[in-house]
Amino acid sequence: MTTTVTGPPAAPVRGGATGDAGGRARRRARLSRGVRLTLLVAFLLVFLIPIYVLLVTSFKPLTEADPGRAWALPEVWTAEPWRVAWEKLAPGIWNSVLLAVPGSLISAVLGSMNGYVLSKWRFPGSDVLFTLFLFGMFIPYQGVMIPLVQLLVKLNEVTLAVTGVPGVFYGAIPGLLLAHVVYGIPICTLIFRNYYVTIPDELIEASRVDGAGMLRTYWSVVLPVSGPAFAVVIIWQFTSMWNDFLFAVFLTGPQSWPTTVMLNNIAGAQTVPYSQQMAAALLASIPTMIIYVLLGRFFMRGLMAGALKG
Amino acid sequence: MTRVRRWLPGLLLVTPSIIAIAVFVYGMLGWNFQLAMTDKHDEVSEGSFVGLENFFTLWDQKRWGISVNHAIVFTVVFVFGALLLGWLLAFLMEKGIRGEGTFRAVYLFPMAISFVATGVVWRWLMNSGQGERAVGLNRLFDSLGLEFLQWQWFRDPDWGMAAMAIPAIWQMSGYVMALFLAGFRGVPEDLREAARVDGCGEWQVYRHIVLPMLRPVTLSALIILGHISLKVFDLIVAVSGKQIITDVPAVFMWVAVFDSHDPAKGATIASYIVLAVSVFVIPYLVWTLRRERSS
Question: Which domain does A20 fall in, by range?
Answer without folding.
Answer: 2-44
